[in-house]
Amino acid sequence: MEQIKTKSSAAFTLLALAISAFGIGSTEFISVGLLPLISSDMGVGISTAGLTVSIYALGVMIGAPVFTTLTASMNRKSLLLLVMLTFIVGNLIAMLAPTFAVLLIGRVISAFAHGVFMSIAAVIAASVVSPGKRASAISVMFTGLTVATVTGVPLGTFIGQISNWRMSFFFIVMIGVIALISNYFLVPKELEKGEKTSFRSIGQVLQNTRILLILLITAFGYGGTFVVYTYLSPLLEQNMGYGAQAVVIILIIYGLMVAFGNTLGGHLANQNTLRALFFMFLLQAIILLLLFFTGDNALFGLMTVFLMGIFAFMNVPGLQFYVVKLAEEYTPNAVSMASALNISAFNVGIAFGAFIGGFVTDYFGLNLTSIFGAIMVLIAVLLTGLLARLEK
Topology with regard to the membrane (predicted)? Predict the structure, then answer.
C-alpha cells in the first residue's frame, strides 16, 4: 500500500478517520442510553430493546468480511464516501421508523457501513506511520470511538430525554454528514485500491491457528464488558438508584475513562502486545467480579463502573494491531480480510455479550450480568496465554 509521505498529510488522514469513527461509535452505542426510552415508546421490554445493540453488532459481523470483499476493487476514498452515505441513510431510516422492526432494519443498514469502514480504516491508519507507531496510529483512529462514548452517546441520550429518542438519531445523522464532508476534503485522492480479496480469503485467514486465536480473544475479551455495558442505564437507575439526568453525567465520565484507557492501551501495545493484553483482560475480569459485590451500592458501584470503563476499550488498539501483524506474517495476501474479520470478532463479542446480558437480566437480574461478563473475559485471559506460548 502506498505510504503517505509527510507527517501533516498523515495527521489529516487520521483526523478524517477519527471523525468518521466518532459518528460510527456514536450510533453503535447510542442505544445503550436510550433503551428505557425505546422500550417505553415502542412498547417492548428492556431486553427486546437491547436488540438494537445486538442486531447492529450482528450487522457489522456479517458486513465487515462480505462487503470488504465486494468493495475491494474500489478506490479507498470513494469507498469511504459511499460508506458514510450508507451510514446516513441507515440512521435516517432508524429515526423515521414507524415500527420496532423498521428500526432494526435501519440499524442493520448503518451496521453494514460500520463493518466496511472499520475494516479498511485500521489498515489505512497503520499504513501512514512508521512501524513502531502503528498501534498508536490505530489508537488515534479509534479515538473517534472513545470520544463518542465521552460526548456522542451522553449527548444523544440527553437529547432523547429532553425530546424523544428519534431526535437522538437525527443528531447521529448530522454527525454522519460532518464525517462525509471530512472524508471528502481531508482524505487524499491517491489512496490505492484495496488488495484483491475473495471469499476464499476468509478460509485462508481462519485456517491459521494464531489468527483464529486472536479473533477468539477479541470476541471474548472485548465482548465480556458488553454483558454489563449494554444494560448500564437500567443498572444505574434500578440497582444504584440514579436518576435519568444523573445517568447522562455518569455516561460522560465513563466515556472519559474509556478515552483514557484506549490511549494508554495504544501505548502499552506498541511493545509486548500479548503481555499487555493478558494483564488488561485479567484486570478487567477482576473488576467485573467486583461489580457483582458493589452493584447495589450507589458509591462503590459507580466507582467500579468507572474502573470498568478504563479497561473496556484499552484492549482495542492492541487487538487490531496484532491481527494485522499476524496477517502480514502468515496471510500477506489477505491482510484486509483479517482486519475485517477482527472487526467482525469485536461485534460477535458485542452481540453475544448483549444477548447474554438480556438473558441474565430477564431470568436472574441485572446484578448477575457482571459475573457472566467476567467469565467471558477470563476465557480471553486463557486464550491470550495460549497464543503467547505459541508465539514463543
Answer: Multi-pass membrane protein
241 Rama class: left (phi>0) / alpha (psi -120 to 50) / beta: left
pLDDT 10s digits, 323-342: 988 998 998 888 878 888 88
Pick the most confident of 76-85, 162-171, 264-273. Answer: 162-171
Structural contact between residues 331 and 197, judged by C-beta atoms closer than 8 angstroms: no
The per-residue pLDDT of the chain, averaged, comes to: 87
Could you give the CA distance from residue 105 to residue 256 in angstroms, rounded to a whole number? 31
Taking residue 343's Cβ as centre, other Cβ atoms within 10 Å add up to 28
Same fold, 1-192 and 198-391: yes
166-169 contact pairs (CB < 8 A, 24+): 166/95, 166/96, 167/95, 168/30, 168/34, 169/27, 169/30, 169/91, 169/92, 169/94, 169/95
Domain 198-391: CATH superfamily, name plus number = MFS general substrate transporter like domains (1.20.1250.20)
Distance CA 162, CA 139 (A): 33
What secondary structure letter does DSSP report for 208?
S
Q: How far apart are CA 388 and CA 156, in angstroms?
A: 40
CATH number belonging to domain 1-192: 1.20.1250.20
- Give dist(CA 67, CA 201) in Å, integer: 13
Q: Which of 121-125, 171-175, 177-181 has the lowest mean pLDDT?
A: 121-125
Q: CB–CB of 210/390 below 8 Å?
A: yes
Q: How far apart are the C-alpha atoms of 124 and 256, rounded to whole Å?
A: 26
Q: Angle, to 10 degrees, between the axis of helix 209-223 and the axis of helix 273-294?
A: 30
Domain ranges in the chain? 1-192, 198-391
Q: State the residue for C-alpha cell 483464529.
A: 212
pTM given for the model: 0.79
Task: For CA atoms 262, 215, 276, 224, give the dihedral sign.
Answer: positive
